[in-house]
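**Discrete fold encoding**
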Amino acid sequence: MSAIEKNRKEHVVQAYDVKINALHELKNGVRNSDIAKQLNVHVRTVQRWQKNQKKILEKEYNADERLSKKLKRNKALKFDFVNKLTWLWFNESRNAGVSVNGPQICMQARAMYIALGGTENEFKASNGWLDKFKRRHNIRSMATVGEKRSSHIDAAENFITWFDNYIRDENLCEDQIFNCDETGLNFKNMPRKTFTSKEESSTCDSKEMKERITIMASSNASGGLKIPLVVIGKSTEPGCMKSINELPVYYRSQECAWMVSSLFKEWFFSEFVPKVTLYLKSKNLPIKAVLLVDNCLSHPRKLQMGTNIRVIFLPPNTSALIQPMDQGVLQYLKLKYRFLIMEHIVNNVNNGEGLMEVVEKISLENGIEWLTNAWDNVRPITIKNSWNSLWRRNCDATTTQNSILDLMNLPENRILPRLFHSILQNTESYAQIAYDSVLDWLNPPTILTPEEALSNEEIMLVIAEEERGKESGESDSDNDSDPSISNEDVGDHLKEILSYCKKHPDHFSKDEISMLLKINTRILNKAEHIVTQQLI
């Protein structure tokens, strides 16, 4: 294998919104070389995006315009859009423990259709539509998350059998089997209080939406490799941070602080694959792994690294039963986070500050620090036991629930909630709060709380961004995309070779140097031709 082939980067086509995120990072002071390393592209590619940023940003605007026009004139597309919007809303509601029935689904679908510019007469969201919606998404019941229905259990059991056979056939060990999952988090998370007015309630809800972030945890089944958390916020320039590359997490921004397919794809190639590869090499294991993910819109279907690192999707509606991260890992992570925020509040109030003053000062940087601490505290045994429902060969006598109980029952953690409750009661708006409400806030029955779920407006923005990705030709091989090795790169290497040959005339003939000069001229002519084609 030649030196050029050995150092050649994997051809990765970047979606336009990945390029836009890169441009924002450049604006924030991140170096070209750091972005290139993150995305597994050549630094010249990033420089080309910077040079063509006007065209890239226009492409975003044009994709918005095309999508808007298509929705206005195409009822069928509008119906498809409503289906996606309603499905995301349905999942958010169930994950937050909100009971949803058929009439509510129909009402939500009609509201979404009207929000897209439709009329009540065009779309009734009838019982017939509801039946099709339920069949399309394999909804046999309106169970909230965590409820175990026979149809979901059957699908899970079938997958468990298939997965066990797959692991055996591929000869994979627990160090090579990975899982990831997302959840929302209000990083200034506080217990719900009794509001004195509708205006106060509205203001609080607005702040909670602004302070919600998305976190994604990923680890292998042994707990030996915990990949740094993904944190997605709304701000491209969080005032608390100098550079996203200095953070202990993989931070990215998105309009709704939500995981979308372009961000997941970027994380997969620039973070997951390199870290898994290094880990497996350190363990003297084959570079072969599998990543298990939920079956949802933000996880692209066509995503794998050659044949060695494969992505496998869980069956729909089975996450509550067999998704490892949902079997106590994310619960433990958020529980530990809330203990840390509680400790911070108690310490500062004891030093003379007011409760609301302390909460107001909590920054995203604080949240990231506490999340990192919480993730570091998730023990390998907790992660290992989270696979018990899915991978029976991995079974242990204990469960992740034991880890949660252990954390709750630590002597210092039994005192802290009492101190926190006392501080709350000394604040007017929390005066009537019960201790049980603090415990419910600390360890809620569902991973996602209603306050952390997407709003209707955010759901529409998320789906619109996914559709824009399709409109912009996310997978097209345009001239911005990475060549395996560019003409400029070859030209630069050839100049170095020519310089070396000229300095050692005793070893290289004039004919050999002349041949190299001809090759260099042909490469320059080819580069000029490509530039000319781009300008036409």
User: Anything to note?
Assistant: The first helix runs from residue 3 to 7. Strands lie at 177-186, 212-220, 226-233, 250-253, 289-293, 309-313.
